[in-house]
């Protein structure tokens, strides 16, 4: 094998090129009003997708507050954005539980749930890690804390760690919204 294909001229070291994993894809879940939805339900909308659960006390409250602020900062452009809060705890997070939990949030945040298999498939599609950990009070669900920005045809655009400020997320979203 010719190693020069991976070595910039004169560098003397190999450059490793890793393929970018596919993020997102098809899904069939139930929203917080009890309606079955698929990726096609949101076709034409930009999506902010976050995975969490209603009993989360550390990661989810600030993440949802950040998404609230992003949607507010986007103003009129925000009408083209739908936020999806996908539970990682479908055993406890029914549509009614999600609806009550999100009632005080921005109206463009929709909760999604489904069977354990459907949620597992969605987690895999977004490379999200969450697992049940039993404890004396029942169980916890440690999980990834990324917000994904998806384009209007369901294409992955970018993602944000939970340390990224809402103004920076809104600015990035505005750049994508402005060119399309």
From TrEMBL:
Keywords: Copper, Disulfide bond, Metal-binding. Gene3D superfamilies: Glutaredoxin. One of its GO terms (molecular function) is metal ion binding. Cu cation binds at residues 56, 60, 143. Disulfide bonds join 56-60. It comes from the Bacteria. The keyword Transport does not apply. Pfam families: SCO1-SenC (PF02630). InterPro entries: SCO1/SenC, Thioredoxin-like_sf. Belongs to the SCO1/2 family. This is SCO family protein.
